[in-house]
Amino acid sequence: MLTLDEVADYLGKPKGWVYANWRVAGIPFKRIGNQLRCRPTDLEQWIDRQPG
User: Is 35 exposed, middle or buried (0-12, 13-18, 19+ CB in 10 A)?
Assistant: First the structure.
C-alpha cells in the first residue's frame, strides 16, 4: 500500500495538494487507522480514467 507521500511523488504533485484534493479528485485512498493508503493497482486504474 502506498502512503500519501508516495502517491504525491508518483503523481508529481505536492503532498498538500494530494491531501486537500483526494476526495474531490477521487484518488482511491482507504483510511487505515489515521493514515491514508492506496493500492498501486487502484492508483493506476484511477490514472487511466483521468481525461487528458
Answer: exposed
